[in-house]
Amino acid sequence: MLPFEYCTMILADLGADVLKIEEPKIGDYMRWIPPKLKEENAIFLLLNRNKRSMTLNLRKEAAKEILKRLAAEADVLFESFRPGVMERLGLGYEELSKVNPNLIYCSSTGYGQTGPYRNEPGHDINYISIAGILERTGLKEPVIPGIPVADMTIGVYSALAILAALLARDRIGKGQYIDMSMTDCMLSYNIANIGDYIAGKREKAELRGEAPYYNVYQTKDGKWLSIGNIEDKFWAEMCEGMGRADLIERHSFGLSDEEKEELKRELQEVFKQKTRDEWLEIFKDKDTCVTPVQTVEEALNDPNFIERGMFFEIDHPKEGRIKQIALPIKFSETPCDRRSPPPLLGEHTTEVLKGLGYDEAKIEELKREGVI
Questions:
Q1: Cα separation of 149 and 146, whole Å?
Q2: Catalytic residue among 123, 221, 277, 315
Q3: Cα–Cα dist 212/264, whole Å
Q4: Which residue among 63, 203, 251, 352 is least packed, with the fewest CB closer than 10 Å?
Q5: pLDDT given for residue 147 in this prediction
């Protein structure tokens, strides 16, 4: 799942030794679903660098014992099962904190461990719906975002929470349990709309398609430009570049709905007269917020991302040379680590078990019994 993968990728890039526990033979389902490169899913390969993989069948008592032994030596356990699953396996926080009182145990779920929705199924669209975000996208009807916002966001929040808990452990001398909810994260993200509501303001849509100065416009070649000229100075620079200085005075938060629609139509007519690249050439020396609406391919070749070091490649034993997206954090003294490619399924199982004291004969027995 994306929340697990993204959270642990962040921690791994920051230097953590991340051991990924997967089901024997099957593994993480994201490994095998399309779109694949050669054998494994392209998204999985982007999210699992710097990790190790171990297989464990947690329905087997021997596997539970192995996990407990791992937990006894670990700093953090991160899981994303539905509420109650780990407890039913005998691997909940209360149980594992007995073998390691210093353990940080983080659970990431759709609705959290408490509340009336705790056992309900859900996906990203459900979480942003309940948090009031989806209703605030688009104008005439809700528009589904182009990425799984809740999944990615809880990955970041979970990594932040884990790091904070590790710092707190230094102060209070023990570990703790972290309950993360994707829906809670989305409610927290909805601060701007909630603030307007609390202040008693009317429902505004300036920043979701209503305003002429914060919108997208199609160009002559069928491509798109985005403009974000909220401030007067940026709007004026754009109008000057368009050769429409007469529009400068019409940049106002006080326009009626009809006036806004008329201004958007006028702007669209002007932008349709040139290609996207012609407009970008005109605006490149202007102090204005005009950018291309890029495809994924264009983003991957964008010179700003390239200069910022947002792309690198890594050698994979089966997939060959694979592209990676760097963590968007630039440290001056401790750059993010790029140690190893995404692990093969169960690649480090034997290594980990030997580290726990299991000999070859016992490891072979665990394989025969379907434990690993």
A1: 8
A2: 123
A3: 5
A4: 203
A5: 95
| Tokens found for residue 36 | 């694949």
Residues 56-83 as b or e (16 or more Cβ within 10 Å = b): bbbebeebbebbbbbbeebbbbbbbbeb
Looking at residue 295, what is its pLDDT? 97
- Give the angle subtended at the CA of 300 by the CAs of 298 and 303, to the nearest 5°: 85
Known catalytic residue at 251: no
- In the prediction, which pLDDT does 202 show? 64
Alpha-helical segments (H) within 140-179? 149-172
Cα torsion angle, 319, 321, 323, 324, sign? positive
pLDDT at position 204 is: 66
Q: Which residues of the chain are modeled with pLDDT < 70?
A: 202-204, 253
Secondary structure (DSSP) of 274-335: S-HHHHHHHHTTSSS-EEE---HHHHHT-HHHHHTT-EEEEEETTTEEEEEEPPS---SSSP
What is the per-residue pLDDT for 1? 73
Annotate 176-211 with DSSP letters as a single string: EEEEEEHHHHHHHHTHHHHHHHHTT-----GGGTT-
Residue 16 CA to residue 74 CA, distance in Å, equals 11
Of the residues 13, 151, 251, 316, only one is catalytic, namely 151
Which pLDDT score, from 0 to 100, does residue 338 have? 81
Q: Is 124 a catalytic residue?
A: no
Tell me how far apart the alpha carbons of residues 351 and 346 are, in angstroms, rounded to a whole number. 10
Nearest to 189 by CA among 244, 132, 114, 251: 132
pTM for the full model?
A: 0.94
Reported as type and span, the H/E element at residue 347 is none
Read off the tokens for 128.
């942003």
The CA distance from 147 to 227, in Å, is 21
Domains of the chain, CATH where assigned: 2-193+301-369 (3.40.50.10540), 214-293 (3.30.1540.10)
222, amino acid identity: G
pLDDT for the residue numbered 138: 84
Q: What angle do CA 124, 5, 301 make, to 5 degrees?
A: 85
Q: How far apart are CA 135 and CA 133, in angstroms?
A: 5
